[in-house]
Amino acid sequence: MGTTSIFVVCAIVQTAVAASTLPPWTPSADDAVAGPLPGTDAAAVNNPAIAAGRTASTPSAVPVGPRRDDDEDRVQKELPGTDAAAVNNPAIAAGDRMDPNGAPGFKPWEVGGFIDVNYAYNSNNPDNHVYRGTSVQPRTGEFSLNHVVAYIRRDAVPGRFSPLFEFAAQAGPAADALVAYEPVAGGANGKFAGPEVWKHLSRANIGFRTRHGTEVVAGLHLSPVGIGIHWSPYNWNYTVTWQLNSVPYYLSGVKLAQTIRERHQVQLWIVNGWQILADNNKAPSVMLGYTFTASERFNLGEYVWIGPEQADMRPQAWRLFSDTQFTYNTDNFGVSGLFDVGADPRTDLPLSPWQMWMNGAVFTRWRVLGEQRTWDMALRPEFFWDRDGRMFGVPQTLISAAFTNNFRVFNNLLLRLEYRYDHSTNPNGFFYRGAAIADDATGLARDQHTVFFSVAGVFAHRFGGRPS
């Protein structure tokens, strides 16, 4: 065998060995043209008959790559978008938060959102399918596309003068119920206002933060009052408290805030009123706030509300309200508590009575299994004393307890199963039952048992900023 022949044989052997170690063949763009029309699989979901020349069992034209062994590690410790959800309401966050000191490569912009689908079984089976008194899960006895939210926001870059921006759009029964009590005055005063104008807006505000921690933000804000928010995937329990349904979910106006030595913040809110975008009188209301963040695990908040919430704007008719709250939270355990008291001098009624209410709740959560893909449980007892029916229409004490199982299957998928019990001390009942679907109907129930099943898809993506 000559030298040339030896070289040829060696080249053939080397080619065979190299071929045995190559990854599976991936078609080029030209090869892919012969395949099915792009999007056929998406179009054919639940209706495979529309696909041409390809069945669900047909392998993809592009081979699927090998499974990554680090999929588990790529699941975030907290639900995507937690920081956006927790703005002005940090008690809802569970686990590690975004580095407040701004790690290298800080990305100020975020886009995100969620889809919440649920089914609720209510022991009273109301004919109108309405869960009375709540705007977060207002429908029962049916599958419901409960809430859909999409948002974009810009956070402040730590240590710099930065613009702040937030816009969130929403739809679904929870969106309609949220703005159901927006005032719509009669005549010409009813123009450009009311639920149909505002129901698709969840947040819309703009402002700035200085390098020394001064914030000025105007628009439609998440309210800091209470524990929990209207975006249910981010709360420890699926349903919210009676307390949260009695305080503002959102505020329309200006927020002024000053952070002091990183742990303290004082706030001044000047707003149209108690969860209203269109004011019900000609004067704003004022709320003062103070928060103390002792560590990433513990925070304390106090909010005091003063302002006219009826047609009479004299100081003797102003609403007075106090909200006190605390949260201790780690990856594996959390506990929160709140206590509220409020009073309205009703100068529109004979003898100008003071209508009062008071409530308290304890929130607990604990990790059962998992580090990234997790199973958590949450338990929340609550009472709400509505002495004069100012908040929920009838004099009563509402007693409630909720027990929730939270299964975080993937980074963006949350399954929830919750049992909730509610009791009203009003002798005529409070909860809708059967054909009794009017607030003053005969036959309203005093007790209510409800089971909720929810599937939530949550996403968030941060971008912008300087590379690390």
Short note summarizing the structure:
9% of the residues lie in helices and 41% in strands.
Can you describe this structure?
With 468 residues, the protein is mainly beta. It has a single domain, classed as Beta Barrel (Porin), CATH 2.40.160.10. Helices cover 9% and strands 41% of the residues. The chain has helices at 3-21, 29-32, 40-44, 82-86, 173-178, 195-198, and strands at residues 109-122, 143-154, 162-171, 201-209, 214-222, 250-260, 264-271, 285-293, 298-308, 318-329, 333-345, 354-369, 374-386, 396-410, 413-424, 447-463. Strand 6 (250-260) and strand 7 (264-271) form a beta hairpin. The longest helix has 19 residues, at 3-21.
Specify the helix fraction band: under 10%
Low-confidence stretches: 1-38, 48-73, 94-103
Query: What is the name of the CATH topology?
Result: Porin
CATH class term: Mainly Beta
Average pLDDT figure: 83
Per DSSP E runs of 2 or more residues, the count of β-strands stands at 16
Task: Give the strand order of the largest sheet, numbering strands 1, 2, ... along the chain.
Answer: 1-2-3-4-5-6-7-8-9-10-11-12-13-14-15-16
Distance between the termini: 60 Å
Number of domains: 1
What's the architecture in CATH terms? Beta Barrel
Main beta sheet: strand number and arrangement? 16 strands, antiparallel, barrel
Cα-atom radius of gyration? 28 Å
Structural class: mainly beta
How many helices in DSSP terms? 6
CATH level-4 homologous superfamily: Porin
SSE string, helices as H and strands as E? HHHHEEEHHEEEEEEEEEEEEE
Name the beta content range: 35-45%
Shape: globular
Signal peptide: 1-18
Biased composition (Basic and acidic residues): 66-77
Keywords: Signal
Region (Disordered): 53-99
